[in-house]
Structure formats: structure tokens, C-alpha cells
Amino acid sequence: MTETPARQYREQQAGSLTTGSHILLPGGERTAEIHQLELQRDDFGVPALVLASLTGGGTLRIAAGSTVTLVDSAHDAVTHLPRAVAGVPAATAADTPVPEATHPASAAAGTEPGQEQPGGEPVTNASVPAVVVPPLPAAPPAANGPSQEELALIPTPDGTPESVVEAAAEAHPDAVGVLLLTDRLSKGVNFKSGSCLKDLTDLAHELFVALKDAEAALSIADLLTVLPYDGNPGRWASVEASLALASYICRQGGQDERAAVYEKLIRTPESQETDPFKARMAAKVRQRSLNEPNLYDKEIFRSIDNSNHDAEREWRLLRLESLLFLRAHGGSETIGMSELERRIGNELEAVRA
Predict the structure, then answer these.
(1) CATH 3.20.20.140 applies to domain 8-109
(2) Which residue has the higher pLDDT, 49 or 259?
(3) pTM, entire model
(4) CATH 2.30.30.30 residue spans of the chain
């Protein structure tokens, strides 16, 4: 066979392969075009194996996380490479056979391409009906963060973080919950401390939920809403809760543009993953968590049955945080915005009673 023109090689994760791609086969000296793709998952629902059916016959089994080599400007369904690629020495065609076909229809009949059917006709790839498997979907678009003009809608704190906390405490001198939190925070606000961020978001919720002081709650929440996403789930959980609360307060107060900024910021982690395959998987997990949120129904009902009102209130506060988080994301496929508004109103009424 004559040598093919010079080719360009690039690496790609198996989970992001598409039909029509030309892939370097095991052994490093043949290429083949991908005809069909099928993604198999393990028992936990995580993508585990990619089955790539090749034009001309054969199926490759590739671990979903493996990196494979693609060949640009390849024209033949299966071709020999004229020289070694990526350090693999050249060999003859006999040394590297084309992968055998593993189509389920061939296996069921007990025959393979090249063998004869009972009627005497040889089995060919064309005689085996193909199951069309759609390619993997494209990666979801990255979340767009707010512009500098939009970020300017969030006011800068009036003084130091400690002074903002002290102002909230002075406005509610008889509120025990506020005093306990501000006493810890008055010693110094450390934004690198997960426990400090948790105290701040708890203070914002205490001011809004228990004391109905939306203005003070928003001033405390804004100490966190401007913090960047640093990849630490523990610290980001507090920032996330403050963003959701700030969004709700602004929506209730008619500040829709400012609320939209918080809602963009809460999606910041969605734009951090640059790998298309991992981004798709993260989007699926994220959507599943939005569709199936933990609303602590069992815990609340158990507290009601035991007449434990303090425990019931604590569980309802956690449910309220989950509902506010869903609302900041625009609802989900299972709970719409109108239903969220109704449920949030119910929880606020229950915990304020």
C-alpha cells in the first residue's frame, strides 16, 4: 500500500470522542474511522467504558478516562501508518491485526465476518444490521460570570468586616442568637477560615429569618458574596448560602438586576472545568442534585412526631437553605419557581412562628 500523506496527531479523552473521528489503533501503526459510539456506566452510574465501532468492522473497548490519539487528515477507513508514531516501532500488517468485530448480532448467530451462514453465503459487515448509537453530547456552555459593571451593583462594605458585624449586633441587643455569633466574629473576621465563613452566613440568616432585618442580613451576606471561588467545597458552601439568601432578599425588594448578579456568581464553579467530558459529567450530577434536593422531610416529620420543636426548627432552617439555593438557580426540572416561592414562604412562616 502506498504511503499516506503526512498526518497531524492530537490526543483526546475517550469520553469526548465523536463519530467520524480517525483514531490510532493499538500497536500504533493503523488508523480507523469511528462509526458508532456507545457509553457504558458502572454500577454507580459513572461512565466506565467507551465502545467504539469502527468503519469496516471491529470494536474498540476504551476506558472512559483514557487518552487516545486521533489522526487528522486521514482518509481511509483502515490504513497502515508509514512510520513509527509516538515511539512505537513500525511493523508488518501481520504483526498488528485489525480488531475483530464484536457486534452482538454476529455473536448471537455464532458467526463472524468472513464465515459462512447456513445458506452458504459469507457473513459480511454489510449483512450485520448496525445499531445506531448517537454521539456523546457536546459539553455544556461555560457559565458566564458577571461583568465589572454588574459587580458594581454590589455595594462595598461600610467600614471593616468587624464594624459591619458590630453594627448588626447593636441593632439587636436582645437577640441571643445574634449576640452569640457576633461575639465570636468580633475577635476578627478571617475569610480563610471555614468556621468564620459559616458564622457569617449563619448571622445573615439569623438576621433575616428570625429578626426580619433584610437590610442588616444583606450587609452581612455581602461580606461573603464578593469572595472568589477557590475550589474548597467547605468554604464555598457558606459563600453559596449567602449568595442564595442575598438573591432572595433582592428579588423580594425589587432589586432584580442586583439579584441577577448573585445568581451568576453562585454558578461560578460551573465554568471552572475545562475538560469537555468532565464538564458533561459535572453538569449531569449538578442537575440531578437540583432535581432531587434533600429537603429533610423525614427529619422534620420525626421531630414533629416527637414534639421536639427546637429540632424541627433546625431542620426547617436547613430545608429553607436548600429551597433558597434552588431558587437562585432558577428552579429545577422537578420544582418550578412558583412552587419554590410558595414553599419558601411556608418555611419562613413556620420558623418565625
Answers:
(1) no
(2) 259
(3) 0.61
(4) 8-109
